């Protein structure tokens, strides 16, 4: 079955041998029908959620994940296309962008009667770890990266994100959809093939909950959307802006928490990924590519980063929360990382050794 | 000037050449009078605080810290005692436990009229980064560790913590006192000499604020102290307890967030470090030593960890928040670390690959 998405992107859905769905996203019309020739492996069980009563936060316990594949050599990469005897997660012999369920998901589809327990303190019963964990392969080229993708391919990735956001949001047990990328061994990447992930949570994650509180409170107090006011301030201050086009703006935020931290937002703000219209979708790629290219250019090395999409939860905050992309890098200098140690990880209090204006200047100074 | 503290610990205060105070804590009566022979270096300037409006959190910007000493060889260690021409932070030729102000503090004493700005959204003015950052050297033996300290020496460290907690709490600009230790290069330690730090914040750190909300809400709902109920549950469940004595208990919490996470609390709960009485103080060392020895024993290697003291803020929560020590290790297996990647750092949603009961079992199985 092929579905045509905005931007002329074609989606073809197939099944892997263990029952997981794989979706090919193609900018060209391609017949996707290759079958998965691997033996049917049984799916791992579901983990569970436990409430930490000291902070009222859910923790997902997924002990079946301990033995997942860890930095395999290129010839065993499960995210490359299949070829001859080498059977990977992607049955076809090539692809543009694919999305499929994680083989060892921390969060997965629960039974039909699943409900998140009410938070009631110490005796909250644990619950199945409902949710979804998907893999988004950005390109079949093992040695590429998001920054190196052609503009057209970035559009295809964006359409895949939008499409999955819309689909996952419709599941009754999903409260928040989170597309992200961990890049670099420094942030724990176990597969070096260019790819991101989508986690769909059955609860509003703690950091989003806090953003929602701030956004709701600002809306109530001022009648305005918080991120709109933040962007107005960044435009007024000017000195932390990295680049922009008619639809998107990229800046180092005034109170950056990481040595290199860039926020990228649509100028006409929207609540959710799947709300992006044609003009916004078409103009995303050039800003995304420039930002990530500048980031790799600062020290002339591939920067480790976490790229995280924030948006309104599925059932809350569509009037106050706004979609934006936060890219943070833990690299301070070529040989030095910023570690989340006592103050950051135990207290949540960030200490920044680099002024945001200084890192913005370094990013702008990169020759493209 | 020498002050006698509980446990027969003697404190002697002296000045370093740049004006910082150094306090020697000794279990024996020792005359501490060695003068700092280094040239008077000017103190670095004060950093500033910026409010992140997206989550209403303060970030400390301390750009003067970029060039601090980074993993010097043992013969240049600034935390060893001075000897001959080798002049360190500690002027005397030996010591038991010392505390002094950090040479490149992220937080420091502000002007007398300093006030934290009211949180008012986007236009909150930035403020001087008021607070204190102190170094606590656990022993003059460069190759030792907290776990290897004699029980008597751990008591001396505890008295130093209690003494500094009491003193820092009296400063008008301090809202929270946080004694902690980062251990191991994996968590960003820049000096390998056995030492911890004390950060005293001029605001309630985000994670403490969240704990306070949970504790206050539990108290209001049940009339009981949250940590008391948590410990009751751990005693009932039994299977996550690591060790205990008449005054202290150590357990892997029900909803642990890290592969190895241990909480250590006094059974008769107290709000603050400086509230610990003689019985509690005298019995802390044996449990602390056992827990850290077991942690190093799990894989037979020195474990990297963050050891963080949580307690009631200076001006809030003394009826609901309770003192306890959280030790978390990012090591999953001998060659594998747990990284705080997308889900943990961007969402605040922790995924645990190891069941808390399993890590408790591994910790208990270590032969002492």
Detailed description of the structure:
- Two copies of one chain form a homodimer.
- With 368 residues, the first copy, chain A, is of the alpha+beta class.
- Chain A folds into two domains: 2-203, HIT-like (HIT family, subunit A, 2-Layer Sandwich), CATH 3.30.428; 208-365, 2-Layer Sandwich (HIT family, subunit A).
- Chain A is built from six helices and 18 strands.
- Chain A has helices spanning 151-169, 206-222, 226-237, 278-297, 342-347, 356-365; strands at 2-5, 9-15, 21-26, 48-52, 57-61, 97-101, 127-128, 131-137, 176-183, 195-201, 241-244, 248-251, 260-266, 305-310, 324-329, 331-333, 336-337, 350-352.
- In chain A, the strands form three sheets. A twelve-stranded antiparallel sheet of chain A has the order 1-2-3-6-8-10-9-14-15-13-12-11, sandwiched between helices. In chain A, strands 5-4-7 form a three-stranded antiparallel sheet, with no helix packed on it. Chain A has a two-stranded antiparallel sheet with strand order 16-17.
- In chain A, strand 16 (331-333) and strand 17 (336-337) form a beta hairpin.
- In chain A, helix 1 crosses helix 4 (278-297).
- The longest helix of chain A has 20 residues, at 278-297.
- Chain A is globular, with a radius of gyration of 21 Å.
- At the A-B interface, strand 4, strand 5, strand 9, strand 10 and helix 2 of A face strand 4, strand 5, strand 9, strand 10 and helix 2 of B.
């Amino acid at each position: 079955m092929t579905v045509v998405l905005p931007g002329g992107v074609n989606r073809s859905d197939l099944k892997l041998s263990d029952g997981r769905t794989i979706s090919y996203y193609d900018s060209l019309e391609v017949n996707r029908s290759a079958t998965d020739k691997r033996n049917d492996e049984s799916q791992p069980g579901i983990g569970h959620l436990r409430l930490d009563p000291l902070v009222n936060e859910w923790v997902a316990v997924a002990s079946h994940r301990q033995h997942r594949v860890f930095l395999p050599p290129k010839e065993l990469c499960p995210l490359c296309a299949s070829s001859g005897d080498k059977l990977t997660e992607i049955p076809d012999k090539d692809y543009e962008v694919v999305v499929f369920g994680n083989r060892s998901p921390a969060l997965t589809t629960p039974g039909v009667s699943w409900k998140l327990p009410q938070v009631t303190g110490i005796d909250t019963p644990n619950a199945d770890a409902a949710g979804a964990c998907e893999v988004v392969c950005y390109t079949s080229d093992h040695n590429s990266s998001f920054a190196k993708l052609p503009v057209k391919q970035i559009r295809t990735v964006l359409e895949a994100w939008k499409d999955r956001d819309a689909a996952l949001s419709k599941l009754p047990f999903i409260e928040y959809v989170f597309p992200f990328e961990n890049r670099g061994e420094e942030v724990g990447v176990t597969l070096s093939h260019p790819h991101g992930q989508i986690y769909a949570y059955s609860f509003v994650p703690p950091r989003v909950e806090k953003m929602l509180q701030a956004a709701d409170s600002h809306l109530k107090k001022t009648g305005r959307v918080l991120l709109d006011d933040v962007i107005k301030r960044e435009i007024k201050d000017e000195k932390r802006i990295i680049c922009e086009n008619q639809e998107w703006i990229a800046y180092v935020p005034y109170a950056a928490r990481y040595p290199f931290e860039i926020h990228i937002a649509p100028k006409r703000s929207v609540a959710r990924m799947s709300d992006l219209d044609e003009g916004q979708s078409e103009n995303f790629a050039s800003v995304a590519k420039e930002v990530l290219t500048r980031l790799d250019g600062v020290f002339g090395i591939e920067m480790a980063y976490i790229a995280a999409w924030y948006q309104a939860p599925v059932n809350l905050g569509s009037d106050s929360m706004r979609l934006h992309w936060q890219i943070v890098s833990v690299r301070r200098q070529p040989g030095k990382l910023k570690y989340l140690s006592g103050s950051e990880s135990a207290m949540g209090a960030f200490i920044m050794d680099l002024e945001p204006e200084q890192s913005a200047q370094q990013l702008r100074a990169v020759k493209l």
